[in-house]
Amino acid sequence: MSRPPVDLSAFIKAYDVRGTVPDELSPEVTRAIGAAFADVVVLPEAAGGRPRVVVANDMRPSGPELVAGFADGLAARGVDVVLIGLASTDGLYFASGHLGVAGAMFTASHNPAQYNGIKLCRAGARPVGQDSGLAAVRDLAGEYLANGVPQVPDAERGTSTQRDMLVEYAQFLRSLVDLSAIRPLKVVVDAGNGMGGFTAPAVLGTGAGLPALPLDVVPLYFELDGTFPNHEANPLEPENLRDLQRAVVEHGADLGLAFDGDADRCFVVDENGDPVSPSAITALVGLREVERERAAGRTPTVIHNLITSRIVPDLLTAAGARTVRTRVGHSFIKAQMAQNDAVFGGEHSAHYYFRDFFFADTGMLAALHVLAALGGQPHPLSALADAYQPYVSSGEINSRVASVPAARARVVDAYVTRQGAGPVEVDELDGLTVTHWDEHPRWWFNLRASNTEPLLRLNVEAADEDIMEKVRDDVLALVREEQS
Predict the structure, then answer these.
(1) Which of 42, 91, 147, 450 reaches 20 to 30 Å from 437, CA-CA?
(2) Which regions span the lipid bilayer (predicted)?
(3) Tell me, what DSSP letter sits at residue 421?
(4) Strand stretches in 89-137, DSSP E
């Protein structure tokens, strides 16, 4: 008699697996997830060939044992495993795309040390999210945890092989952006004790045996340490950029780069230590990719999510691109990238997606584009970036509320029903977006609910600081009214 399945919904969410070790994630749990991934995703796509999955892990101490459990679950279902060991998340995406096999990256990105997780993808680095297989993997893994993983005969059991792909990864990225002829640049790189300390020496330096580039790299926290002894590997939080900002000024560097824990996101600071917004980087890199597409006689498409700056569609459209606005979240961006054959995509969270990189996100490739743009002209990064960040934004502001619908209704009543701020455009692609951009004063805001908590997330942008602050404060007052 079978037992009811174990409920894994607490840590298998919409985009990936993310939980604490060992109470949520253990080798037993990852073994069940590996077997379920085989049955739901890998085996149906094998098309009669020998099924394979490439697996990597970041520097977290729990990674190797969780990988071992996952690989055993795959082998139990007759799937071969290629273990590439330490890698950044975009290194795993490269392996999946280059080898043409499904993949699993063991990482909890920027989360604290007690967490680990798994990012799954189909062959060619195509995403696996809630609506593209992850929910089915979760449910089947729950059944396998309760009743055991079914075993193929010993003769059909999957095998494990090891392969180092760091050199191939570095060579591939360098083939996409040529830095050999740029002016010499000094760059401080803050890896935050994450995987950037593994990939930056290989791509930007000579760690993979590749020729030296005209870069003087000043390393910060390159030692791999999943306990994050210096600061959290989450550059989205301003306090985690302080060391980088200080080092850029102290070393007289041309710019600074900060990577998150699994090094798939890249943040940039200029020569003064001032952050360059991810929207500005989206515009800068997007224009480079648009120019390349048009030179090849193609009409480029660029994807951006709905809370990137208005400068992104403004500049890219003027340059001859078609822009597509999407919901927030990498699975939506990746789906739109593939559907539209988009050359590039960017998010406010510093995820950057490239058609040349299997439509997947890679912070390192974005960094190479920034270095190429800066080193290909004589001006400092602050001057270069000014053209890409003319507007003022609030950043994302979270408000915990007693009732998300009630708080949202107050905002709708004030701005839409009564049109207290004058005629506006309204859309609900992802949350509530209210726009007053066609006449002065120009502003817009987006209010989105969290998927997991009673939170509302507010982003505001305006043509000047005073207007941004007024809209921000007015909307926040409505959202937080019940708390006052």
Answers:
(1) 450
(2) none
(3) T
(4) 102-106, 115-122, 126-127
Is 6 contained in some domain?
Answer: no
Find the mean pLDDT for residues 163-177.
98
**Is the model's pLDDT at 72 over the cut of 90?**
yes
Nearest by Cα to 225 from 198, 204, 249: 198
109 carries an active-site annotation: yes
Q: Catalytic pick from 96, 109, 349, 393? A: 109
Block residue for tokens 């992802």:
430
From the list 416, 394, 397, the residue with the least C-alpha distance to 479 is 397
Q: Flag whether pLDDT at 100 surpasses 70.
A: yes
CATH number at residue 70: 3.40.120.10
For 13-22, how does the pLDDT look when each residue is reduced to its tens digit (9 = 90+)?
888 999 999 9
Going by C-alpha positions, the residue among 306, 315, 316, 192 that lies closest to residue 244 is 192
Q: Which two tokens stand for residue 16?
A: 């990936």
* 178 and 228 inside one domain: yes
Indicate the residue among 386, 418, 437 that finishes a domain. Answer: 386
Count the domains in the chain. Answer: 4
> Which one-letter amino acid corresponds to residue 170?
A
Answer yes or no: are the C-beta atoms of 276 and 385 closer than 8 Å: yes
The pLDDT tens digits of the residues spanning 267-306 come to 999 999 999 999 999 999 999 999 999 999 999 999 999 9
